[in-house]
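Quick one: structure for this chain?
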Amino acid sequence: MRIALTVLLSTCMMGCLTKVEPTLPEATQVGKNTLGCLIDNQLWLPKKATSIIGSPPVVYALYSRSTNELKIGGRRFGSGGSEFTLKAIAYGQGKATLLVDNINPENETYYYDDNESYIPLTTTSSLTITKLDTINRIVSGSFTLEVIGQRTKKQVNITKGIFDIQLEFYR
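Got it. Here's what it folds into:
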């Protein structure tokens, strides 16, 4: 009996100490406020600021009913902080038209890390909306971006992007 209890407790402790590696969020369509992607094959997930009270949200989705403009974004605060915004014209489910501004990228679709602002190469970047529900305020979908640094001209691949976010309205 003692041996069985020892084996049981040891197994439980080993299972409890196993480190769970973060993964991309599941493809859901219920407004879970999830977002993730691979940036040059490295997992990227939003991260909250730890020292700021009332810090901005780490994921957001804004939609204008009058212009059909959709902004989806994510932030990663802290060391190695980064953020990106996908800005598009979306009429419902399906491919959305990404908006790009090479002069002022912060106004349109962009990716930013500690050292560089990146703009998408439009021929290889895409945004697909799998759900745009303005009644229940949910937007879900996937994205792929190939971006290039404005200063360094370094190319970065953002792949397997996925999101399921509660929608807010503006304008």
